[in-house]
């Protein structure tokens, strides 16, 4: 793992997650940053795995919200004659 390259990406993800209130992703990014400062490769890998898990969970939640919104729009649209 190229910790320097990943660190920049994780920093960007952290900033974005802060903006939209994704606290668990933000915390995992903070853990990655801490581990990278300590040159702790195992800690970086654990934090990356946590970031991925949280991202996957968030993606599933957003997909469900989008699907519900789609259903609501369909149900609230008057039938066409």
Tell me what you see in this structure:
The protein is built from 3 helices and no strands. 16% of the residues are buried. The longest helix is centred in the last third of the chain and has 36 residues, at 41-76. With 81 residues, it is mostly helical. Helix content is 85%, strand content 0%. It is rod-shaped and about 65 Å long. It has one domain (3-76): HPT domain (Four Helix Bundle (Hemerythrin (Met), subunit A)). The model has no long low-confidence stretch (mean pLDDT 90). This is Histidine-containing phosphotransfer protein. Functions as a two-component phosphorelay mediators between cytokinin sensor histidine kinases and response regulators (B-type ARRs). Plays an important role in propagating cytokinin signal transduction. Its main location: cytoplasm. Keywords: Coiled coil, Cytokinin signaling pathway, Two-component regulatory system. Residues 34-61 form a coiled coil.
